[in-house]
């Protein structure tokens, strides 16, 4: 066979293989036996080896190929991959619909519903009809290039199929979800058990980890699948219903059980129906996505913060399950506080396997009367945080004794103490290793340093490269090379990232220090009052207590922090290493908001709650987390909840969003 004949045969083989791949992995139809298809793939591979220059990126042989990667490159998304607002009840969903009608000036428009798969969102970019890049969501603006791994997923076409009567635009972006089919996940765990290896507990995390394998051959063994839920290209589509049809014609499998409805009641019926079907769907879902079906209207509704107005995730109710308490462990945080965590028998709740549940503190243990060996009811709040709802006392073992608070630190062995007026138990060793690690991690978040996590920080501390958070700012690339996960380029990038964060506001710097009882709002209040770091450090206890919203407990914490010599040295180190602490911006003078305390509740139409709070701070006001007699105003949006009721009960004035904006201006 000469080259021309080989080329013709290769084209034919690719078309036939692609057709049967599509039938099996997208349409769930078997149109050729596995052995016959393997035979065709082998013939194609043999011809391509004979004529390597005939290998193209859309060839089935390229789904797994190439050397393992050293790292993932970054990809800037052409448009941000936004998040979704969550609602958890029928009332919250109906409130969302009412906001849409109010903002959009129209009622009773069709809504498109699709199951919310528990997977990993990815973006696929096709250029000239061929898969060019595939990237993860990342931070919404920048993701990781996982093209080689994505190619191993059979339900993702390497080349787009031509829709009936349409031309394929030069650039097509398809967004969707990588997920673990139930059967594939169970088969993977069965195989791991046979090999005597640990099994995976969480399908979503396993899917995400599979996609981020540096060796595509590992990803190929996982049996992952893909469903599409968005096209960013002009095919003349006007609705999501039309997009679903186009996605199918392009060769994708859109999320099943998806449909448009003309009424809220029909959407609610579909949501309830999905819950009854969820165990038989073949994939894990934790809710239903509801979107305005009309694309133009969806775009016109705009974005609030990082979430589109015309889209919402209606989560399924939290699931409950029973399990047994095997152990209660105590962890140590950055302030030295010991937190109890219940270790439970692995229990499946809401699409994940739960093995730990938070107990908060010793008072919570006593309130629940939790004991080792107890059978308890676990639930997940918003399908995220596992908690203990109740102890089943009739199932308690006869030898189950009360949980005793620890008398020494579980990390360093130092004595512990329970301070007057506080619930938490603290390690008395200020140099406890875990406290050091958590303190550095806390500081990196306040300085907004990306790319450095607990493992890297632990390695830096263990190797003596750093001893305090301030030491991060004198790191050199050579200090990092040789640590796990760092080569020359990645080390250089992290150092550059750290150096770019040397300028910081006073409030964020105070937050970075990790003072007990000083959270984000308290740090802002202190910074607004004193304006400079030296003023804060020199402030007396009485001066600190004079700050609006700062009581004796917080004032003592701040004063005690700056009275300690090693904390003074830490601040001095920051300054020596080039940290520029910006003078706190003076709040706008003489506004109707200056000096007033506000609580914001409910959903606002023109701004997010965080934006509203920032506007209040800039105008000289203070934000409170709860309503009290000291609250001056409560800003009330849609679906306000208990804070609105509390304001009415106490007679605290409330402001509509319109009245609030007028006060700001």
Please tell me about this protein's structure:
- One of its GO terms (molecular function) is DNA binding.
- Its EC number is 6.5.1.2.
- Its cofactor is Mg(2+); Mn(2+).
- The protein is α+β, with helices and mostly antiparallel strands and 665 residues long.
- The chain folds into 6 domains: 61 residues, Helix hairpin bin (Helix Hairpins), CATH 1.10.287; 190 residues, D-amino Acid Aminotransferase, Chain A, domain 1 (2-Layer Sandwich), CATH 3.30.470; 106 residues, Nucleic acid-binding proteins (OB fold (Dihydrolipoamide Acetyltransferase, E2P), Beta Barrel), CATH 2.40.50; 69 residues, DNA polymerase, domain 1 (Orthogonal Bundle), CATH 1.10.150.20; 78 residues, 5' to 3' exonuclease, C-terminal subdomain (DNA polymerase, domain 1), CATH 1.10.150; 68 residues, BRCT domain (Rossmann fold), CATH 3.40.50.
- Strands 14, 15, 16, 17, 18, 19 and 20 form a 7-stranded antiparallel beta sheet that branches. Strands 2-13-10-3-9 form a 5-stranded mixed beta sheet. A 4-stranded antiparallel beta sheet has the order 5-4-7-8.
- A hairpin with a 2-residue loop joins strand 11 and strand 12.
- The radius of gyration is 29 Å and the shape is globular.
> What is the total domain count?
6
- Give helix % range: 25-40%
Molecular shape = globular
Quantity of strands, as a count: 26
Going by CATH, the homologous superfamily of the largest domain would be: DNA ligase/mRNA capping enzyme
Overall average pLDDT: 85
Tell me the β content. Answer: 15-25%
Unreliably modeled segments: none
CATH class wording of the largest domain:
Alpha Beta
> Separation of termini?
80 Å
What is the SS-derived class? Answer: alpha+beta
Largest sheet: 7 strands, antiparallel
- The number of helical segments is 24
Write down the CATH topology of the largest domain.
D-amino Acid Aminotransferase, Chain A, domain 1
Radius of gyration: 29 Å
Going by CATH, the architecture of the largest domain would be 2-Layer Sandwich
